[in-house]
Amino acid sequence: MTASHERRSARLRALRPIPQPILLQQALFELISRTAPLVGDAYFVGVVQSLTEVFGCTSAFVIERTRRNAELLRPVAVIRDGTPCPVGRYSLEGSAALSSLSGVASIHNNATQSYADDAVIAATQSDHVIITSVCSADGTPNGFLGVGDSSPFDDALTIEAILRLAGPRVGAEIERLQASAELKEQSGMLRDFMDRAADMVFRTRPGVTPVVEYVNPAFETMFGHTCEELYEDPELLLRVAHPDDRTDFAKMMLEGDVNQGRLWRWIRRDGSILWTEGTRIALYDDSGALVALESIIRDVSLQKEAEQRAAAAERMASLVIAAIPDTVIFVDRDGIVTRPPGADATSVLLGAFADGAELGSLLAPDVTRDVMRAIRAALLSTATETARFSTGHADGDRVFEARIVPADREQAIVFFRDVSGDELLSLAAEREKSKDELEVKAERRILRSNPYGLTFREFTVLELMARGLTDKQIASELSISLNTVGKHVSNVLGKMQVSSRTEASVHAVQQHLLD
Fold first, then answer.
1. Cα–Cα dist 179/167, whole Å
2. pTM for the whole structure
3. Who has the most CB within 10 Å: 57, 101, 369, 438?
4. 327, HSE (Cβ side, Cα atoms, 13 Å)
């Protein structure tokens, strides 16, 4: 007989005259009185130590069933011969605790043989174990409580009953342990997330002397100062605030004034300006007193600098537009007209107009059509387009050029310039030169090859048809009437025995009539 068995038997002999209910009460009272003042890990160590002492056995253990994976067990406390035995995590499969999942205490003899791979039994070196399941407050099994010994338990029923009675307290402590561990893990994850965040996150306790409770490393990137500097000297934030914003920032830190839409300026360590915007939350206690400010601050310096550059560019554009002789307007793809600030909206071409006018109300229908076609082409290609047109005025016809520059995907800038006079003469000279070159080509073709018997003028019309010119453009190029152009086109189609201008152009190219 082992020493522990002798101790346990002697204890039972001493208690044998005592009725079973009284024996249970004494054992339970002794166990509770030993562990009542203990909390946390000390409680688990205390309860297993007390179990070995109360029952005179060699080992006892408390096992946590993990929340994330019920197939994993983690011994919370294991005692053998008064010494803690850490055993780590192990699989539930094959464990002696399996038969205790229902909450009914189980007695296992020959445990080391039946559960050769059981880590707890191996650690306690117990061949005889009594195990019961313990539960959380909602009745979910969350662990196991047990004792072990190398000799059989003569008082197994008493021990089993005590384990059951002690189970609720053990289950409650395991539940608190798991909740605390999850909270700690979540807090760690949140802290890791905030530490990696690009935005500055900080929490302060306002007052005459504010206290920085937390600031993430983004502070160092944004301000150029270390987090340690801010912890040691919370007024550093006030000193690096831009002079124009310092008073308002001090008021916010003192009173908790939360202005979510406010942009703040700061002076970085290198002297550059930092622009920020952020979200601040003021926290109050039950009496309404401000207890903390939590803030997330984002660096918007690049955005602010871009806005400033854009504003400067817009001012420069307005000055340039006001100085040039052209009439400048903005037109969207629907033909709605606006003008840039400061530009004169009155011109010989457009007269007086207000923002929001339609281009069609300012120009003749055919001119509007040509200009709008060029505007849409410019918006589509993002390249500059040009349209020329003439219009009648009291002092005679005038020629205008519209240069269209895309401003963005929805609107274009249109520069109207009066190109009458020299421009008209230049245009007439170009047309005359083109007409002469065209007639020389036509004469050569008549002499060289004329399978369809085309006349001199019909050859010139065919050349312009092949270039894609309309009847109106052909008439302008050759200085003949539209009616005459129509007759020439009809004659060309008849002689070449084709049904369309396109077909005639294709035949002319294929048969080298226009080379």
1. 18
2. 0.45
3. 57
4. 20
